[in-house]
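In response to the reviewer comment on reproducibility (Comment 2.3), we provide here a single inverse folding case reported in full, input and output, so that an independent group could reproduce the run without further information from us. The structure tokens appear first.
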């Protein structure tokens, strides 16, 4: 994969990055995870699996790696991999996020797996934890799932602290989630344009079923922000584990390109000129290999039009996502 800039952040990335949400904790929202990951979910087994997938990603040329404080031990696993491979900070670009904490106690049946806290004390605590683990490898630090109703974008002390972290050399961004992503992204852009916020990157959900943030992502891309796309396979709905008309259409188009349905789902993301990175959430090297076919898939205009027709109303998409179980 050819390297490319992450907007105007000064950071280099690759079209496909590796997200560690499903590799850092025993339970996650992903269809087919039991079959993909298997029963070995103790800390040591998941660290080995995480290192295995990271090795495969690095060997294949992936150079953007994504973690978060709430992804169980993802930062810890990534840090131990970076040490064991003796990688210089210049060899990879690492992003992480603050604002949620993992509280699942490494249990599959936990009532609550993560809790949100967008306060200044949470930022200062979690930033120190992330930097302690990742050191000079940490390049990008983002608010985890910022929303308008959380008030984080209007919290002056939080924005000032993010500005201080930026002045210390970190690129600052935000991730978004939910049916109001576009409004949240535009508010962050407005604040940054007015010099009241330090954002230079956004990480948003965009996929064939939920493309509503697309116009806002195009706007921030034009403003020079980096754009990272998450949940490109809709928590497994756009993989062989998915069911329904969308999977059938994907399967037919994938067959014409001799790739998997997941590669087509990621390729559609990369067809957007504003998309710098699309994240793979692979939990096996084989899944990763299938995902990495995406940059080589050239979809025809008629195929893109047919795939665009699969979009769902945002409220319906997010209601459905909320019904998915942690497995």
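Designed residues, in position order:
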């Amino acid at each position: 994969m050819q390297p490319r800039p992450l907007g105007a952040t000064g950071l280099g990335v690759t079209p496909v990055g590796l997200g560690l949400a499903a590799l850092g904790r025993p339970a996650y929202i992903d269809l087919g995870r039991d079959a993909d990951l298997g029963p070995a979910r103790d800390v040591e087994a998941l660290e080995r699996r995480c290192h295995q997938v990271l090795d495969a990603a690095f060997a294949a040329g992936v150079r953007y790696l994504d973690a978060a404080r709430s992804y169980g031990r993802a930062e810890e696993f990534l840090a131990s991999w970076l040490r064991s491979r003796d990688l210089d900070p210049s060899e990879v670009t690492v992003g992480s996020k603050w604002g949620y904490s993992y509280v699942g106690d490494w249990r599959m049946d936990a009532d609550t797996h993560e809790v949100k806290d967008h306060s200044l004390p949470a930022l200062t605590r979690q930033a120190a934890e992330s930097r302690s683990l990742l050191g000079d490898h940490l390049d990008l630090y983002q608010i985890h799932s910022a929303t308008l109703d959380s008030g984080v974008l209007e919290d002056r002390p939080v924005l000032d602290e993010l500005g201080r972290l930026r002045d210390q050399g970190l690129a600052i961004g935000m991730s978004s989630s939910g049916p109001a992503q576009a409004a949240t992204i535009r508010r962050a852009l407005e604040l940054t344009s007015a010099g009241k916020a330090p954002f230079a990157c956004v990480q948003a959900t965009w996929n064939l079923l939920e493309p509503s943030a697309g116009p806002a992502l195009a706007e921030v891309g034009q403003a020079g922000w980096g754009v990272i796309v998450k949940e490109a396979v809709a928590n497994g709905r756009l993989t062989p584990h998915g069911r329904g008309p969308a999977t059938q259409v994907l399967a037919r188009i994938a067959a014409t390109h001799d790739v998997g349905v997941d590669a087509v789902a990621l390729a559609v993301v990369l067809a957007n000129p504003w998309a710098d990175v699309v994240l793979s959430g692979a939990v096996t090297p084989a899944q990763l290999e299938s995902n990495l076919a995406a940059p080589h898939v050239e979809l025809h205009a008629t195929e893109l039009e047919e795939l665009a027709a699969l979009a769902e109303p945002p409220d319906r998409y997010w209601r459905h996502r909320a019904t998915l179980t942690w497995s």
